[in-house]
Amino acid sequence: WLFLPQFASNCVLKTAHWILQRTAPHLVPHPKTAKYVLHQRVAYIFVIAMYLLYTMWTTEANLGSNYYQILGVSPSSFSASELKRNYRQLSLALHPDKNPGGEALFIQLKDAYKVLSDPVLQTVYDRAGAAAIKCDSCSSASDYLLAAIPRRLGIYLAYVIGSVALQVFRIGKYGTYWRYIAIGAFAALELMMVSSSTTPGLVKALQWLAPHRTGYEIAQILQQAMVCFFIALNQIGPQFIPQEK
Questions:
Q1: Predicted TM-score of the model (pTM)
Q2: Rounded to an integer, what distance in angstroms lies between the CA atom of residue 23 and that of residue 129?
Q3: What's the CA gap between 238 and 61, in Å, rounded?
């Protein structure tokens, strides 16, 4: 982040000016003019925005397959008979006797069926992830979800501590106020996910874009979005509003 964005934006700017020089030379500004500086800012913003979009895409891809994808059913709607049928077909195909070396995948298939065939565990899995199901003393969905709150909000406490450390060492000073607003907003969103009986509207909208993802996985993507927001704020913000203003 110290040199790569500037290097990449210079490459983008030179490429764009090379193309314009051959197609519309009157649009290429002279160096050290206000228009040239504007082109530099646009190229820089473009590079940062593309990197952030790429980061979001890789975050979604790195989540891997969830229990719904493993069993080939939709998170929004599936029947018990469909779930059982898919499980039987897959268990026969992936059984270690027929698929040597695939014990881990077969165990994962069994875990997926155990969770999705139980309405309580399915609710917990959708809202708090597979880790929340490991609560041995929990019996109801509310027990599981309440037990998951400290773990989920602890992540945001770490973000707050990290932001305070940045302030102390005077790193990433731009947009400090909005950094804390973002941490609070995303923490509130996650708290709503594990404590409310309804799914927040933002999560529903993102599930429409990624229908194969659970609410918990959408929350993980939003966490990465928050980090990307911090980076964008410190990288792109000064291009619009200088720090002294």
A1: 0.78
A2: 53
A3: 31
